[in-house]
Amino acid sequence: MPKCTQRGCLQPEFDSASNGPTACQFHPGKPVFHEGLKGWSCCSKRVVDFDDFMTLPGCTRGYHSEAQAETVQFGDTTTPVDDADLQRGGGGGGAAAAAAPSTDNNNNNNSYPQQPTTTAEEEQDPVDAIITSGTPCRHRGCNYQFESDAQSRDYPSSPAAHCHYHPGAPIFHEGSKGWSCCKRRVLEFDEFIKIAGCREGPHRFTAETTTASPDPTSTNNGQGEGEGTPVDCRRDWYQTPTQVIVSIFAKNVVRERSSIKFNTQSIDIHLVLPRDQVYRTTLLLAFPIHPDQSTFEFLSTKVELTLQKTNGISWGSLEPSANLTSWTTFGQGDSPLNVANGNRLN
Asked: CB–CB of 253/297 below 8 Å?
């Protein structure tokens, strides 16, 4: 079957007979990585995690296409890159990455030291897992979609069950792009997407092991005191003139047993995680929000909170801080800091 080359299309192969004007959902723009955020120039959605960026739904409908995509070169005015942010994904870089590398793999094998990867056995799909046809492999660098147990899970007997993927993290540094687990470096984003996986093993179609669903007859629903092992989760945030977006990095949250409650100047967060772990906290906010207009979304690698501001103030801090003594208003007029912040900084 032909393969679609449209950026952001999550259907790598398509049937020419059924290819219509709305068959492909893709991004006509260019990738934009800037100040910790990743997205596409054609739409406003921004994420922090690279895996979430790779699965952002396309913003445009059209025909699937086999045509060679336009070359994407990072570093121009439309795709600004923050090297420090892109380096967060893993090792590499430094003096060895200072020079722009050749896209020829044979000439580049010795230009970068290979980043060591874990030798521990990676978690595999449960034997009794029920996987539907068309489910994509979760391994980075693999575009395979599940066909049947005999074809896709009978490793190593079935050729289709062999997965070639990248166990490492993406590294974008000074124009070069690659993976921390192997030496190949390229200059163009589309070539980066095509870098063949450096490790072989069985495909992975299901998420990491999660705790069992809650007992529907239970009145506690898993939210009582003492539930699970307390853990801490990393947070990140950014803002627009009207909203503050907070990311809590927690993988595979058990949604049915988790809760988020917005208050005027705080958020009650209770997340139930795999392996009987719990993240519970009350996040105090530096400025008030509209609780009824604020929302949250559970993603595969994080929980994203969208807080609706009550005014046009640019938050200098997410949480209350005695060091917060100035502010900007995005051109929407003056707002005295001590009033906007509930007089808690005095």
From this structure: no
